[in-house]
Amino acid sequence: MEAKERLILALDVSALEEAQQIIQELRGYINIYKVGSRLFTIGGAESVKMVKETGARVFLDLKLHDIPNTAAKTSEVIAKLNVDMYDVHCLGGKEMMKAAKEASKVSGNPLVFGVTMLTHLNDGIIKKELGMSGSVEEEVLHLAQLAMESGLDGVICSPREITAVRKICGSKLIITPGVRPAWAAPHDQRRTLTPKQAIEAGADYIVIGRPIIEAPNRQEAAEKILREMR
Ligand code: C5P
Questions:
Q1: How many domains does the chain contain in total?
Q2: By the 8 A CB rule, do 164 and 196 touch?
Q3: H runs (alpha helix) in 54-153
Q4: Catalytic residue flag (residue 94)
């Protein structure tokens, strides 16, 4: 896959017009856009339609985490929006993940990914605050295994876990956020690698938001990242 087919830009902005302007600006650089909870709350289905109309692909990142029936019905609606990929939270369990995947086949057959652990979490937080017993890596591997047993198309994990997750996922797909070029601020991301390291570790797709969105020159930032990925 070409670098451009692997880079997903997180459209974390506060207005549909702003998102539209960024897509225009990055035409030729970015081919896949992540519509997350912020933009979707603002623009709803219209935000997905707007991106699709530009010819780009859409990853709808709503991290569904609900009872199986609700996750399935929502997956049906998502599939009918013609998104290319979307995600559910692995902590919803196998019954929920299987129901979502099955329901998504109603239209277009989007790729369904399982979110393992959010990338701002670390061992201290998940043990002390959340009361989990394993390390982040142990929990991620366990959740990735559940996603595979549920028939999902891939998982989302931090770059630091890619190598271990690959052993569980085989040829299924890995999306990794929490990627930070050496020249960019980490923001609230904790378990980061650079784009080059993430690709070398075996990521199929990398998600990047603020290092491009907040760059003084977005095209230059995107190009620098693509170059690193090649
Ligand atoms: O701006 P930044 O590059 O940190 O954006 C990363 C994007 O990836 C955000 O939209 C965030 O919601 C998303 N994400 C994440 N960690 C996950 C899943 C999604 O950071 N585990």
A1: 1
A2: no
A3: 68-80, 94-104, 123-124, 136-149
A4: no
Residue with tokens 């603020």: 210
pLDDT digits (tens, 9 = 90+) for 159-175: 999 999 999 999 999 99
CB of 118 closer than 6 A to ligand 1? yes
Range of the domain at 102: 3-229
Distance 150 CA to ligand 1 centre (A): 23
Write out pLDDT tens, residues 161-219.
999 999 999 999 999 998 999 999 988 877 789 999 999 999 999 999 999 999 999 99
Indicate the average pLDDT of the chain.
Answer: 96
CATH code at position 101: 3.20.20.70
User: Which of 12, 139, 156 is the pocket-test mutation for ligand 1 (most atoms within 8 Å of CB)?
Assistant: 12
